[in-house]
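Minutes, project huddle
Topic: does the predicted pose make sense with coenzyme A bound?
PN asked that the exact inputs be recorded in the minutes so nobody has to dig through chat later. Recorded below.
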Amino acid sequence: MPTLLRPATDSDLPTLYQQQLDPEATAMAAFPSRDEEAFYAHTKKIMANELVIFRVIVYDGQVAGSIGSWEMDGKREVGYWIGREFWGKGIATQAVMQLLAIATTRPLFAHVAKHNVGSKRVLEKNGFNVIREDSYTNPAGVLVDEFVLKLG
Ligand SMILES: CC(C)(COP(=O)(O)OP(=O)(O)OC[C@H]1O[C@@H](n2cnc3c(N)ncnc32)[C@H](O)[C@@H]1OP(=O)(O)O)[C@@H](O)C(=O)NCCC(=O)NCCS
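Predicted holo structure (tokens), as shared on screen:
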């Protein structure tokens, strides 16, 4: 299987930092990139948090992105980010499938910007269903319309 998950190490951070800078990706996710200092601080914090599951997605031996699961408002959430050169290869779909075997809490939730058709599809292919619509103000101060999806 060319896609696998493994724990993140400090040497993965430069690649993950570059991937979250991509303007096309940030527009898709409706989530702004972090500057270098904020990215390293945030990512090291979640890597050290035993309550957060954070994995690097490896595809054919390369760091293709990251995926994680964390608790928000008492609910277990899932999120992921794939580097642009790896899009369209089924990597996110495979990564979510593999995460679901590690993040065994149910129900699991995901929030997806309404225009993020690809991410919604990834989740639905893994058994998530839209349960409601919502909106929130992202860290850039932009109001984002989103779908909330649930598994289990
Ligand atoms: C959205 C994202 C995760 C998709 O990752 P990916 O590895 O390219 O997705 P997959 O290859 O597994 O595709 C899964 C399905 O979604 C579809 N899809 C993927 N990207 C799409 C897009 N931009 N538009 C329409 N459909 C798309 C694929 O065609 C596939 O559907 P199919 O099996 O019916 O053909 C990736 O583009 C990404 O990381 N974007 C930036 C960050 C982001 O949006 N993260 C998620 C926040 S909720």
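Observations noted during the meeting:
- Strands lie at 3-7, 53-59, 62-72, 75-82, 108-113, 129-137, 143-151.
- Residues 25, 28-29, 79-82, 87-93, 112, 116-119, 121-122 surround coenzyme A (CB under 6 Å).
No decisions taken; revisit at the next huddle.
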